[in-house]
Amino acid sequence: MQAWRVHTTGEPREAMRLEEVPEPVPGDGEVKLRVLAANVNFPDALLVRGQYQIRPPLPFTPGVEICGLTEDGRRVIANPSLPHGGFAEYVTAPERALLPAPDTLDDAEAAALHIGYQTGWFGLHRRARLRSGETLLVHAAAGGVGSAAVQLGKAAGATVIGVVGGKTKVRTAEELGCDLVIDRTAEDVVARVKEATGGRGADVVYDPVGGDAYTASAKCVAFEGRIVVVGFASGSIPAPALNHALVKNYAVLGLHWGLYAAKDPAAIPACHTELTRLAAEGAIRPLVSERVPLDGAADAVQRLADGTTTGRLVVVPSLPSVPSAPSVPSPHGAAR
């Protein structure tokens, strides 16, 4: 089969190689799945760079989230067992952790439903206890993680303010349903949030970015507000001023979704049931901005790492390869 492999960590375009490898063999409690679609996640970029908290043995195949087909024909959502990740034609995954793919979503959408939406649901409902009528501020609202939080916030009855970078992402966030979109490249985030909330600030802040986004969040979070720290896509890990949290009376909450598998495993399928219901009702639907063939996976991971994408990029192995553009003869007869 074909699979992308990393022999030496580095930037995705240089470190990932598409190779012919043997199909993976399931271990005890595992099943083999044919990959129908593999969602591209920020942890994939961190894995390739050697910066993730989990470091699989080299060589490994990245790809932490898929929609796949079991040998008996079931369409499921799974987290592949590293080092045999999802950017391949076949993977193995723990059988006990398989989740049914919702009938209302296609393969690419189903592949993107799991990690981002589970993280959003646990962050907003289990950690922040978001209530209907509250104001939710979502950083990187046009991205894969942020777009899930926007949809889940609207489904919960919140007023959602999205923060994005650039005009194209403003349009995407508006189409997702944000009540207000702030372009951080052209506007003062803190001033706009306070203006929109009558000076109160945001009740809940969902922050997968860190760095300057967290700094702004602390300045515009409401009395008894909650800042949910989801990740550090900016590459900068903030150091919260606890005296500031004390004086303003707000909470800083960490969300590590992966811990629920070990600490409260029953909560994950329960959350999936709720997400499936919301998808069936049309309240949520993963924003798949691009479906790419298997040979485009390295480029897709690089673009996500560079922060140039909106929504979700999903690798679909059955898509035909995109041929390179033919060279154009120059007036002097050489290709250019």
Q: Could you give the order of the helices and strands?
A: EHEEHEEEEHHEHEHEHEHEHEHHEHE
Strand percentage lies at 15-25%
Helix content: 25-40%
Q: Uncertain runs with pLDDT below 50, 5 residues or more?
A: 324-336
Number of helices: 12
Shape: globular
What does this structure look like?
The chain has 336 residues and is of the alpha/beta class. The protein has helices at 12-15, 42-49, 107-111, 115-127, 144-155, 167-176, 189-196, 212-220, 242-248, 260-263, 267-281, 297-306; strands at residues 2-6, 16-20, 30-39, 66-69, 75-78, 90-94, 99-100, 135-139, 159-164, 180-183, 202-207, 221-229, 251-254, 288-292, 312-315. The strands form 3 sheets. Strands 3, 4, 5, 6, 7, 14 and 15 form a 7-stranded mixed sheet that branches. The chain is globular, with a radius of gyration of 21 Å.
Feature tags:
seven-stranded mixed sheet; disordered C terminus; 15 strands; six-stranded parallel sheet; 336 residues; alpha/beta
Q: What would a concise description of this structure say?
A:
With 336 residues, the protein is α/β, with parallel strands linked by helices. It is built from twelve helices and 15 strands. Strand 4 and strand 5 form a beta hairpin.
How does the SSE layout of this entry go?
Layout: E1 2-6, H1 12-15, E2 16-20, E3 30-39, H2 42-49, E4 66-69, E5 75-78, E6 90-94, E7 99-100, H3 107-111, H4 115-127, E8 135-139, H5 144-155, E9 159-164, H6 167-176, E10 180-183, H7 189-196, E11 202-207, H8 212-220, E12 221-229, H9 242-248, E13 251-254, H10 260-263, H11 267-281, E14 288-292, H12 297-306, E15 312-315
Parallel strand pairs: 8-9, 8-11, 9-10, 11-12, 12-13, 14-15
Antiparallel strand pairs: 1-2, 3-4, 3-6, 3-15, 4-5, 5-7
Helix pairs in contact: 2-12, 4-5, 4-11, 7-8
